[in-house]
Amino acid sequence: MFSLNFLLFQSSLSVILFVVWTLPHLGLLLSESFEVRSFPTVTGIVGQDVVLPCQISTGTQPNNMELQWKKIIQTHVETVHEYRAQTGQDVPGQKYQGRTVLLKDGFTSGNVSLKLMNVRPADRGTYSCIVKSNEWSADAATELKVAAVASVSIDVLGPQGQGIDLACRSTGWFPSPELHWVTKNGQNLQPVTKTEQDHELLFSVLSNVTILGEETGEISCVIQNSLLKTEQKSVILLSGEFCLPTYLKRMLS
Ligand SMILES: *[C@@H]1O[C@H](CO)[C@@H](O)[C@H](O)[C@H]1NC(C)=O
Ligand SMILES: *[C@@H]1O[C@H](CO)[C@@H](O)[C@H](O)[C@H]1NC(C)=O
User: Which residue spans adopt a coiled-coil conformation according to this UniProt entry (predicted)?
Assistant: First the structure.
């Protein structure tokens, strides 16, 4: 009887001791936990800089923070930038030398966004922001979309039967653009359009069309970027009566 009582006393004491020990430490563990947030997508313009956003939910920088930015590519993961508070290490990944900057002013408010400079089409893809402290780790991903637009020009190629041949050109689009010709009379044009991609993955378009004699007024070549929902165009003015020599003289002057 005595020994049973003693055992009960002892076990309730250890429960009390456990609770007394755990509460403050549980608090410590909870205060170290955090989430990391980003935007699902961001759009970068070729040749410009883009901020890949990442924010720590607590609005502070965790102790001994380790920050990694990685790009997730189908079969592997590529280091974009790494930071370690303890050693002060702040280095871009091998393929990102001179192209990434951590804006450390924001660290004190938990802003661990990364600036990627001089965006290229090859940069499009999924980036992961991984934040670690001694006790905790969290990550968030963002998809970088890349866009580029360029100026458009129309050239007069010369007379063609009862009409005239025009060419529309533009170089430096991303993603692949849509090109169409617009005439005032809504003539049913049959352009021949060719799209090519260069080694930097930028698209160029060339479109030839024959404009028939009865067409007058403005003729436009319109090129659209589906990602930015913007367009660029070039307009040429055809003279009233379609007498080729005068027409060409005006056109080429
Ligand atoms: C975080 O820092 C980036 C880069 O300076 C900035 O563009 C962004 O607005 C900041 N985000 C917040 C929520 O302040
Ligand atoms: C357009 O015309 C030019 C000049 O005749 C020619 O070199 C080019 O190949 C043509 N392009 C297409 C897409 O037909």
Answer: none
